[in-house]
Design a protein that fits this description.
The protein has 184 residues and is of the alpha/beta class. The protein has a single domain, classed as UDP N-Acetylglucosamine Acyltransferase, domain 1 (3 Solenoid). The protein is built from four helices and 19 strands. A hairpin with a 2-residue loop joins strand 18 and strand 19. Helix 2 packs antiparallel against helix 3. Keywords: Acyltransferase, Repeat, Transferase. Belongs to the transferase hexapeptide repeat family.
Length: 184
């Protein structure tokens, strides 16, 4: 099994693997080109994102955008991200349609061993799923393995460590559901 296959399955893998290093460099180049593109030509900027990510429709991202690989990220239709989105996509990140992210959102599938000797060598990850019609406020962090259901609002500054059920408003560190949203 290759290090890429291990990585995408959420198993321990060697990030120093040459194939993974090459893929990260390619993603960094496309992010760099996107981030430095002329802001008056959004159609040019989105071409870099379309080459990097799996788009299911239209998407608009403000610069700066950073990711590890890009090919593990799937965006639904009508996606919007404000400035400074970071997605560490060692495992699959699935984001639904009609989703909005405030500034400085961080999505991280990556995790590391607790043991310091193991941490020097390997890392792993767990996939993240964000449903349809979700709004993440500014400075929200979503940690490995989390699922956020449809129609959720996650308040600014929250650290999402556990799944958030559909139709919820959740806030805090750690993020907790404070009320449900009535469907209309």
């Amino acid at each position: 099994m290759t290090e890429l296959e291990k990585m995408q399955l959420g198993l321990s893998y060697l990030a120093s693997d040459p194939e993974l290093a090459k893929a990260r460099t390619h993603a960094k180049l496309l992010c760099h080109q996107f981030n430095l593109a002329d802001p008056t030509t959004p159609h040019v900027r989105i071409k870099f994102i379309a080459e990097l990510l799996k788009l299911k429709g239209k998407a608009y991202l403000e610069p700066m955008f950073y990711c590890d690989y890009g090919f593990n990220i799937e965006l639904g239709d009508n996606f919007y991200a404000n400035h400074n989105l970071t997605i560490l996509d060692v495992c699959k990140v699935t984001i639904g349609s009609n989703v909005m992210f405030g500034p400085n959102v961080m999505i991280s599938t990556a995790t590391h061993p607790i043991d310091p000797l193991e941490r020097r060598i390997t890392e792993s990850g767990r996939p993240i799923t964000i449903g349809n019609d979700v709004w993440l406020g500014g400075n929200v962090s979503v940690l490995p393995g989390v699922s956020i259901g449809n129609n959720c609002v996650v308040g600014a500054g929250s650290v999402v460590t556990k799944d958030i059920p559909a139709n919820s408003v959740a806030v805090g560190n750690p993020c907790k559901v404070i009320r449900s949203i009535e469907a209309k």
